[in-house]
Request: fold
Amino acid sequence: MTTTTQPTGPLRPEGPAKLTGHAQYAADVPAPGALAAALVGASVPTGRVAALHTAAAEKAPGVAAVLTAADLPRLRPQSSPPLGHAALPMQDDAVRYEGDPIAIVLAATWEQAVHAANLVTAEYADVTEPLMFGQAEPVPPDSGHVLWPTDHRTGDVEAGLAAAETVVSARYTTSDRHHNPIEPSSTLAEWDGDRLTVHSSVQTLTLTQQTLAGLFGLDPEQVRVVCPYVGGGFGCKGYVWPNTTLAAAAAKAVGRPVRLTSTRAQMFTLNGHQPATRQEITLGATANGRLTAVRHHAVNATARGEGHFCEGAPVAAGWLYASPAIQTRIRVQQVDRPNPTAMRSPAEGLGLFALESAMDELACASGIDPVELRLCNEPEVDPTTGKPFSSRTLADCLREGARRFGWERRTPEPGSMRDGNDLVGWGVAAVTRETNRAASTVRMRAHADGRFVVETGIQEIGTGTPAVIQAVAGEVLGIAPARVGIEHGDTAQPPGSPAIGSMSAMSLGSAVHIAATELGDKLTAAGGAAGLRTAGIDYLEVEGRWDPDEDAARWKDHSVNAYGAVFAEVRVDPDLGLVRMGRCTAVYGAGRVLSPLTARSQAIGGIVWGWGQAVLEKSVLEPGRGRFLSKNLAGYIVPVNADIGDIDITFLDDDRHASPIGAKGIGELSAIGVGAAITNAVHHATGRRIRDLPIRIHDLL
Ligand code: MOS
Reply:
């Protein structure tokens, strides 16, 4: 893989620690006296545990105990989210999904615990045929994980369609997908009386602290969560899942520290997944391509008995294009499976596959260039709310992307571009994502020896947040970013942004900006570091907090979204049905770029992620057994470097309404639209319209 647009600016301060193994992940933390734990999961998808046979496991080498539901403390119900699953694990004999924990084996080493866990067998009762996606009634989500508006209507869609010259209507589907972070979830839990400390691989320290406190009936101050580094999450560590809960419960039960590390296979069932969706889109347009109606309905699978995890697939239809009539609707099917959760990029990442495919179908049906079609539907204000856009860069992204990609050389007829035996296709998709934000606090010190330190309770999840902190602080203080030290990863520190929803850089960066500004003023007044030394002062300290609610005047009267345009070239081997990425050009308007290196890395990662969605990632639930058939990276395939062609990334703009530092979210933006750009390119190459992701070889033969 090669990429253009080389970054300038600071390097990533956490890099050396990671490369040399000094960065400590939850499974690395030394824990003398701790027992290693492994979970036993139910092998059926419904019913209850009638009998558990643990004798063989108890006799296995190194085993200290086998815990069942009866051995664990009773947990107090919590709302979900932040609990990833509404039903608490191992509190009764119910089996709610295949893999639902039914026993915990504690041993001297993790290998011994995993081995013994395999020796535990169970008898089940009341097992029923599991309901699969497609077999349950779609119902309005009414509780739990409903993070998006489920029913919205602006104008009269029927009238808009009646007035249309061209109507396209189609159904699109996306598959069940898994997060697959490199680091499986791991939690080291230790009790000291009624105080609990957990080292756990989580995407949010504060939510984990509050949730554990609630589960065990403690005050949040009695719970300390430590997590400086996370080996990837993509959403599966965003809420609190059984790995964290059961480690703490087991440690309490046995009165010893316990470290529970999930297996790779358990990551497919115990941390959520992205649920399959079915989406229906109908677009109406005038002869010159102006939309008269947009209807986007979506249904996703969710877990019976675990709340209503709801995907906001249609939300972007609310602001992406001008239309006098827009209707969106979300329904869920409650089926027998582990509870789904948000996965990079929820909502728009699923919805824009459908909407941007439909726009391509409309372009073909109307004989209008796909870039032109999008440009002629630019709204003046948010068509759903009537609010002005804080900044609206879609048209600039489309034009700049088309220029960089060389779009004017495209011949519109499908199959008209060839390179040897390969059919070449060029596709485009618009990209947008709503901007999220979270209150963030940092403590910052200027030391008399010239060092600067930022302290905040955030974790480095792979996105390079420390580089962002350094860049913002360095700019405000007028110093080299590398002079700013960062201490992070502990609820004992001021609470930073959770590492979810593409909000960390902007939210935390704003807090750093506020702190660094105040610290710089104080330091100047004190005569700089030399002044501190003369006065015998070791350091100056300030706290900076950005609270989006207190700063609501900045953003709440605007429609604040990030935008982009992604252009993909595919090469299709018509004899083998293989699709390969030729190249990808993406231009984003995501507000001010705080760290060019990390922003570009995020964008590359997002496009690679989108390639996985488009051509590789599909998890199959086995009918009758209700289990994911393949729970490893051999049977569930993700992209590797050899899959990826040239990627060209550009960022535009600045958005002072989004945050004090002009930044918006980047991380999830770049995984959006890629699927549609690729299937649109495949249509251009072959004339085949793929409406179901991922593209399969037989779709093209
Ligand atoms: Mo993301 S799905 O908010 O980690």
Observations:
- Residues 203, 233-235, 238, 342-344, 346, 500-501 surround dioxothiomolybdenum(VI) ion (CB under 6 Å).
- The CA atoms of residues 599 and 641 lie 19 Å apart.
- The chain has three domains: 35-127+182-232+237-268, 151-177+274-435+557-700, 438-547.
- The chain has 15 helices and 25 strands.
